[in-house]
Amino acid sequence: MENTASLLNQKLDNSTASALTPDLSEYMDYRLFLADFYLSKKTQTRTSIRPYSYAIFSAAADIKSPNYLKMIIEGKRNLSNDMISKFSKACSLNKAQGEEFKLLILFNQAEDPADRNYALKKLSEYRVESKLKLGELDRKVFEKVPNWIGWIIFAMVDQSGVNFKVAQLKELLRGKASETEINHALESLIKSGELVRDENGDIKKGQSNEAPEEIPSALVRKLQMQLMYLGLESLYQDSPTEREFGSLTLAMTEKEFEDLKFKLRHLRKSLHKDNSIARMAAKGERVYQLNLQLFPVSNASKKFDA
After folding, report:
1. Which residues have CB under 8 Å from 215's CB, separation 6+?
2. Tell me: the pLDDT tens digits for 29-88?
3. Secondary structure of the chain as H, E, C letters
4. Which residue, 14, 41, 226, is CA-closest to 121?
5. How many CA atoms lie within 13 A of 295 on its CB side?
6. For domain 4-109, is the CATH number 1.10.260?
7. Where are the domains of the chain?
8. Each residue's pLDDT tens digit, 87-139
């Protein structure tokens, strides 16, 4: 298995390597970002009198050890909070990038799965907000995409006893959202036409007044992350009688993987159809979230000649 250090050595041996400064927002591993940052500096100064080196980076970061960056890239050391700010400075990151860099490090270095998932959630949300501020994501499109609050409020139309008063919705949402967030989500659903108020003031499901648009992948990831994080919270907060959690870890061929994806999609559609039919007969009692997750946890093995 190739580690970060060997990957860096391969890149340094590649004379056609790009000299462009890496974009932090494209990375999910801060060590790889640092390796590419070092590579870009090395490439840019290859013909200089004083080529870029680990010692130069340490000087810029105000670190005594000349090989500290090398040890971090190779995974021999972790970055402390004090070192995070020094590395941000040495990488010429601005304030916003420095905060993103810190969140990425917290995600990579977290040992507890709960801490790691929380850090990933915060990183995902921060990156979406940053893209909105920079204009890389259309805010109008963003506001049309329900967050987890809107997702659940929409489903509450099929739950009995809901009057859609903000105070009641906050209680039903178990205090996980503020009244401001709930009111914004409710009004957004009404504005989009997903929900409508009838002549009696009752909330019912409607139909969006606008043609569907392609939703940016960053927004899809954010919503999915929020829903999965609710599942993580349930694992710690709800009793086993109120939830059903299970897992399977399987070795499969590519064909078996594709077949299983198809079966899971079919299952999801079948469950949704059955639930829709049941809700036509009577209201539900609570809103539940079902997450179906299928993802790789190992790389494909390399084939070696005997």
Report:
1. 141, 145
2. 999 999 999 999 999 888 888 899 999 999 999 999 999 999 999 999 999 988 999 999
3. CCCHHHHHHHHHHCCCCCCCCCCHHHCCCHHHHHHHHHHHHHHHCCCCCCCCCHHHHHHHCCCCCCCHHHHHHCCCCCCCHHHHHHHHHHCCCCHHHHHHHHHHHHHHHCCCHHHHHHHHHHHHHHHHHHHHHHCCCCHHHHHHCCCHHHHHHHHHHHECCCCCCHHHHHHHCCCCCCHHHHHHHHHHHHHHCCEEECCCCCEEECCCCCCCCCCCHHHHHHHHHHHHHHHHHHHHHCCHHHCCCCCCCCCCCHHHHHHHHHHHHHHHHHHHHHHHHHHHHCCECCCCCCCCCCCCCCCCCCCCCC
4. 226
5. 4
6. yes
7. 4-109, 247-285
8. 999 999 999 999 999 999 999 999 887 788 788 888 888 888 888 888 887 77
Token pair for 30: 């801060």
Q: What would the pLDDT profile of 139-171 be if each residue is shown by its tens digit? A: 776 766 668 899 899 999 999 999 999 999 999
